[in-house]
Amino acid sequence: MKLKALTVGLALSFPMLASAQGTSVTLYGNIDTAIEYVNNISDGAGGSNSSVHFTNLTSSWTSYWGLRGTEKLSDNLSAVFNLESGFNPGTGTSQQGGRLFGRQAWVGLKGDWGQLAFGRQYNMLFWANIHGDILGPNAYGLGALDAYIPNARMDNSVTYRGSFDGFTFGAAWARGRDNVGGGTGAGGAGTPSGTNCGVDYDNNGACVAYSFMAGYNTAGWGVNAAYDVIKGNDPAAGNFYGLGAGDKDRRVLANAYVKFDALKVALTYLNRKNDGINGIGAGLGERSDLWSLGASYGVTPAVTVDGSVNYLNYKDATAGSQKVWYYVARVKYALSKRTSVYASAAYMDNDDATRLSAAGGTAPGTNPNVGQSQTAVMAGLRHSF
């Protein structure tokens, strides 16, 4: 028993010893859960129902836990790493296609010159979008209009990011950008968090991803832009986005924001061209324009209200008008620095041939009938550690 106690004591004291030697490891995370009401859910036979349930993909914020660490190697060089696991707080199951560390799993080197990292990481579309996306990974955020936005990650990747006097530059490349299948659909690729597009040893151009970003950010304003490409594999049925060998799904993003004391206003534009339009939806155009105007205002130190007006237009559509308006409002009340409660509401105004769901934080199954609008409301609790 004494030997066991000594072993446990040494293990517990190791982080403190390591910290004294220039190494630190931090445990962090977030738990956010919400009850949601959604109307006009298609029953598959032309009718519709309403539902009260827990969100299962994300709520006002995603739920995760992680470890991040650094070791100082010299005056201008440190080793860094990040392991981050997403989970569903309602069931305790892993997100991101069932991965243990599906949000991030990388190691790298960092200095005044920037950071070079290897592993599963966010791409440059994420880093360019983070400054101008008012609602972030909210269930009623941009992910309801483009599921790729909250899943902008790459397996088997190398990335570089550097910041110099307000200017930020970045580049990313991956070979075998998504090694996990989503579990449903052809090829087991049913969700954007698991697209069954891993390393193809017979085709160097298959399942590749690359992206670039540049931005300038200050305390009062900023502008950012990104160019992002993901490529498909063969057969195309094994890829959620409908991309065959040689097909590309390309996005160009630009945003700008300004801050006035407690008020922040941001405008985002995203242009998309998908060679495999079956990944967007039958009859929808292979090109689309997404506009988002968002604002956030701190009413008091404890109360924040924010929201967005979003417009999505599919071009070259073959099934009627493809214009969607999406309206979101949210209010948050901070009980402490780490705990808050909130309420959100969203309204998806679908056009003639679209059926996007207002409930972006709930797994597929809440979509309305074609051309039908939908309302979603949720209330929840968030705690960070």
TrEMBL record:
InterPro entries: Gram-neg_bact_OMP, Gram_neg_porin_domain, Porin_dom_sf. It is a multi-pass membrane protein. Homotrimer. One of its GO terms (cellular component) is cell outer membrane. This is Porin. Residues 1-20 form the signal peptide. PANTHER family: MAJOR OUTER MEMBRANE PROTEIN P.IA (PTHR34501:SF9), PROTEIN YDDL-RELATED (PTHR34501). It is found in: Cell outer membrane. GO terms for molecular function: porin activity. The keyword Iron does not apply. Keywords: Cell outer membrane, Ion transport, Membrane, Porin, Signal, Transmembrane, Transmembrane beta strand, Transport. Residues 7-352 form the Porin domain. GO terms for biological process: monoatomic ion transport.
